């Protein structure tokens, strides 16, 4: 079946070629739609065969029809819109300029940006911007264990949750690695309390003021036994601890360096142009 089609777009990508451009030889045309032509080469480049002849024929037909739909829509738009509405050259040039500047800026940053941020810099930024580090949610440090109730070693693990000797802690770690559905024992890491509640549904029934330093919670449902020990708490609206904000601060500092580096580079370009009389105002 022959389709009298043509298009600006294949696979949804619009080409703003002019209807007045050079016409293809008949043997090179795969389809036409109005004033637009689709070459066999372009169709081949954008078509991915499944290896099945019937599927391939169907997909070719659908791709050409999609291409033609966009082409015809575009051609009608040219006849319905006024000159001001279809004048997109300035927008295209501005976008091109922004894109090229972004690529070049990225190249400059990759070559010159210092991404090493010291502890002293992080501390200084934290001290100078404390008002920006007010907690919006409660955070906690915890020891947390989620164990399937059918685990035979559960009773032994319950005793070891209160362990204080290095040997007992090492044994508990080994058992958790083997049997725990989930566990967390990093005492230096702050977590959002709401994230803990997602892990322990019954904790949602506890008021936030009950979550205090040293408090132990134990819950059991049909599938799991949960053990939670609160190692530290920071309440929302208070100052967020430094080690909770450390990575954010590092990002802030690096982003500030990016801005400063690009601005300095642009100022150097401007000054050089002035010195070489390449920038003149009238």
Question: Would you summarize the structure shown here?
Answer:
The protein has 282 residues and is an alpha+beta fold. It has helices spanning 40-45, 53-80, 83-86, 89-112, 119-128, 154-160, 166-179, 193-199, 242-275, and strands at residues 29-33, 36-39, 139-148, 182-184, 191-192, 216-220, 224-234. Strands 3, 4, 5, 6 and 7 form a five-stranded antiparallel beta sheet that branches.
Helix content: 40-55%
What is the total number of structural domains? 3
At CATH level 3, the topology of the largest domain is Chitinase A, domain 3
**Architecture (CATH level 2) name of the largest domain:** Roll
Please identify the structural class as seen in this structure.
alpha+beta
Largest sheet: 5 strands, antiparallel
Q: Tell me the number of helical segments per DSSP (H or I, 4 or more residues long).
A: 9
What integer is the average pLDDT? 85
Query: What is the CATH C level class of the largest domain, in words?
Result: Alpha Beta
Percent strand: 5-15%
Query: What does the radius of gyration come to?
Result: 33 Å
Beta strand count: 7
What is the string of SSEs from the N terminus onward?
Answer: EEHHHHHEHHEEHEEH
Measure the end-to-end span: 66 Å
Q: List low-pLDDT spans.
A: 1-20
Q: Any idea what the shape is? A: flat
